[in-house]
């Protein structure tokens, strides 16, 4: 589903809907419709603008098997989303996990 992929990529970049709207030149209400699945078939022109702004390819926006968070604990999803909103990068998050593993192994 385009909306799921769009939202995932937007959050990975740390963009709000407003910021992506400004950068891509697509209205925020239209972006919201896409993300919520109301607009299921955006034009190739819109998809190209979004893909370019998100540093990806249209094919990634059109993925047919998006990563699902349905089976994840909602608290984990909320924690990760909050980390993204706060600007924590994947590398920083990975370093933190490695630090926690190190601390646990040192305690044993």
Explain the overall architecture.
With 108 residues, the chain is an all-alpha fold. The chain folds into two domains: 2-61, 434 Repressor (Amino-terminal Domain); 74-107, no CATH class. It has helices spanning 2-13, 17-24, 28-35, 44-53, 58-61, 74-85, 90-107. It is elongated. The termini are far apart. Residues 6-61 form the HTH cro/C1-type domain. Keywords: DNA-binding. It comes from Niallia taxi. GO terms for molecular function: DNA binding; DNA-binding transcription factor activity; protein dimerization activity.
Characteristics:
108 residues, mainly alpha, 434 Repressor (Amino-terminal Domain), 2 domains, elongated, DNA binding, SinR/SinI_dimer_dom_sf, protein dimerization activity, Lambda_DNA-bd_dom_sf
Short description:
By secondary structure, this protein is mostly helical. Helices cover 67% and strands 0% of the residues.
């Amino acid at each position: 589903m385009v909306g799921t992929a769009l939202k995932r990529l937007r959050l990975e970049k740390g963009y709000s809907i407003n910021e992506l709207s400004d950068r891509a030149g697509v209205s925020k209400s239209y972006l919201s419709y896409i993300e919520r699945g109301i607009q299921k078939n955006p034009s190739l022109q819109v998809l190209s603008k979004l893909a370019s702004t998100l540093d990806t390819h249209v094919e990634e926006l059109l993925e047919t098997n998006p990563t699902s968070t349905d089976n994840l604990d909602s608290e984990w999803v909320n924690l990760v989303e909050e980390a993204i909103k706060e600007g924590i990068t994947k590398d920083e998050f990975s370093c933190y996990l490695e630090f926690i593993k190190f601390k646990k192994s040192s305690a044993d």
